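Example 469.
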Amino acid sequence: MKTIIEPFKIKSVEYVKTTTKDEREKILKRAYYNPFRIPAEDVLIDLLTDSGTSAMSAKQWAGIMDGDESYAGSKSYFRFEAQTKKIFGFKHIIPVHQGRAAERILFTKLLSEIDDDGRFINAGKGKYIPNNNHFDTTRANIEFNGGIAEDLVIEEGKHPSVLHPFKGNMDTKKLEEFIKKVGAKNIPVCMLTITNNAGGGQPVSMQNIRETSKICKKYKIPFFLDACRFAENAYFIKIREKGYEKKSILEICNEMFSYTDGCTMSAKKDAFANIGGFIAMNNDEWYEQCKNLIIITEGFETYGGLAGRDLEAIAQGLEEVIDENYLHYRIASTKYLGEKLLSKNIPIIQPVGGHAIYLDAKGFLPHIPPEQYPGQALVVELFRAGGIRTVEIGSVMFGKFDKNGKMTPADMELVRFAIPRRVYTQSHIDYVAEIMWEINDYKKKIKGIKITESPKFLKHFTAKFAPIA
Ligand code: F0G
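Predicted structure in complex with F0G:
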């Protein structure tokens, strides 16, 4: 087979800084061993996230210059609207400043009652939102509005080394049992995250989207997709699901969204934009209510917290991401890193997902118990050894504490190596693999880590840590 090459060439470069191990030790200490507190300038290879970190294309930059900054009804909004309608097909699409703003609006609307004056009151006690796996901001927006977020991914999706082509699938049997248990009237919406970020960037099959939709229709529950990585998901459907081999990515996207009532989207992922997102839906009444919320915090409905130039970049990005040639390279390049790690028996979630490698820290560092956060310990070691920034997706992010301070750990202890789109070359990725191979040789010496200070919501962003002596 021929080498799969980047389907682009580089027009503009950004230099990165190398540091010594001593310098990195000091940087870690100053950052309280939290990667979110490390100044980006001190990072050599930044795999913290694939969100907002894409390299924009020349055509996107041209769009930035061409953006129309009119307050209402700008030309850029109409381009954005036409492009999003072409792919997602929903009746109403409102831009927002990023994915979590879409979540906040959706869940404020769905988890509140609306009084005679149109005010949102009585945030939703006893309301449930099922999903394959809620991403952390999705969960936080639900819980912050008094709701309960329920993860119902298939069993295969909880075991890193178990192979399954669509490990992001919803367990539809469990979903139906759950609906019967808590009552359909207490479920204002059912979500499905494509691809399933918190579960390893794993895709959801068309069949599963269709079945989930059928169950939702049966119980009259609205069904939304968290669409951040919709194009990567569509590509997996094309290459893994029978009957889709010959369909275009656009046709697959159209079909995925046709089974649903709306979606939330962060344009910082598959739209290659540095900022932006949207909320989309078919229901006219919901749209009116969401618009009111948008105006309070995001802005007028045709810009939603974005500049006209951002809407141009998103519209152009959405055109580029449904190019099969790009997706072929994208998925192959993520797999390339995965295979390098597997060649030394480093445990990762298999099969490799779309936007990231998820290393199984529980399997890699079995001597560190979940209470000592093996994922966070490895995140720290990756920076120490090679200036590589990654993120823990495990008990730091999802561990729950009872009144006595005892922790129920997350299902998995993962370290995510998220690959920014069109940013790093193959030799950058080779370097990451070499650092992991080095760590693999001395991993028994790595020690656990403790939290010394932490907020209640989304603690991983700002918590402080210290190594366990
Ligand atoms: N949903 C999913 C599945 C996500 O991965 C994210 C963000 C969001 C919603 C929220 O979007 O950041 O634009 O507000 N994920 C980033 C990440 C932050 O690193 O995985 P946002």
